[in-house]
Design brief:
Layout (H helix, E strand, L loop, with lengths): L2 H13 L51 E3 L2 H7 L7 E5 L5 H10 L3 E6 L8 E2 L2 E2 H4 L5 H8 L7 E5 L2 H6 L6 E6 L5 H14 E9 L5 E2 L4 E2 L2 H12 L2 E6 L7 E5 L5 H5 L3
Parallel strand pairs: 1-11, 2-3, 2-7, 3-6, 7-8
Antiparallel strand pairs: 4-5, 8-12, 9-10, 11-12
Helix pairs in contact: 7-8
The chain binds S-adenosylmethionine.
Length: about 260
């Protein structure tokens, strides 16, 4: 079994493992105190109100013709992407899903947008970065992994919304979004990605889930995707399940072509 396979298995295992929080240290017993003077009730709470993130709700017409897939690899291989496409992955990590997209979609150009700074964290996904990137920097690891396809794979280092902005509008046939997962980051990426997508291009968002139950963090993907679909007239074309429900959703501005909807039947 190769190192990469072993690592992949370790990643999968660790990704579904939650380290329980350390038990809190016992608190010293409080010294007995005199009963406190009764105090006036505080004035009405003055906590600053947080602006809620809008959550448009999908309706049946938004999912007409959409297909359900057992996993994201199956969905990617089905998507209506032309031969010789230009594809971007926004947030690539070790390149495991880049590999899958390259295999199934055979693009003429693949652009990998990432901060490429994961090696700076001593541990990532519960694995020492040294092990994750085989002693290399994140950038060098990814570049080495795809060195046999260097004319095809372009690395764009830095914040993804800035990197995408350097490309002409209408460049990409497919953009896979999986970088920052908080609402603002996803929204920023989605705004630029839409401009850089061809009219009949597809946006795929990883982690269509409200909350990361493995690390206890809210995500903003559902709000961003639903806003595009409900308020801007896009359509859901595919939905891919994942064992921990970190599902993928594919959306398109143009209605689904009948031949794509039938593909695989
Ligand atoms: C969940 S990982 C991507 C996993 C990858 N798509 C896959 O499926 O194998 C998220 C990646 O996004 C990158 N990232 C996070 N915030 C970013 C940002 N603002 N701009 C560019 N990359 C970012 C991280 O460095 C990391 O590599």
């Amino acid at each position: 079994m190769g190192t990469r396979t072993l690592l992949g298995k370790a990643l999968n295992r660790l990704a579904s493992k939650v380290t329980p929080p350390a038990p809190s240290a016992p608190q010293p017993e409080a010294a007995p105190t005199e009963p406190a003077e009764p105090r006036p009730a505080p004035a009405a709470a003055v906590e600053p109100a947080e602006t809620p993130i809008p959550m448009p709700v999908l309706k049946p017409e938004h999912v007409v013709g959409a297909r359900l897939f057992a996993d994201r690899e199956q969905m990617i291989s089905w998507l209506p992407v032309p031969e010789g496409a230009v594809i971007a992955e926004v947030g690539v990590a070790r390149g495991d899903f880049s590999e899958i997209m390259l295999k199934h979609l055979q693009p003429k150009q693949f652009v990998a947008f990432d901060l490429f700074d994961m090696h700076e964290y001593p541990i990532f996904w519960g694995i020492p970065s040294e092990v994750l990137f085989e002693g290399l920097t994140h950038h060098d690891f990814y570049r080495k992994r795809f060195s046999d396809r260097s004319s095809l794979v372009t690395l764009e280092v830095g914040p993804s919304h800035e990197g995408m902005a350097r490309y002409d509008d209408g460049t990409f046939d497919l953009i896979y979004i999986d970088a920052g997962h908080d609402y603002e980051s996803v929204r920023r990426d989605a705004v630029v990605a839409r401009a850089k997508l061809k009219d009949d291009g597809v946006l795929v968002f990883n982690d269509y889930i409200m909350y990361d139950h493995l690390i206890g963090t809210p995500y903003g993907i559902i709000q961003v995707v639903n806003d595009i679909v409900v308020n801007d007239g896009w359509h859901v074309v595919g939905f891919a399940l994942q064992k921990d429900m970190f599902c993928d959703i594919a959306i398109q501005a143009a209605p689904l072509a009948a031949d794509s909807a039938d593909a695989g039947d």
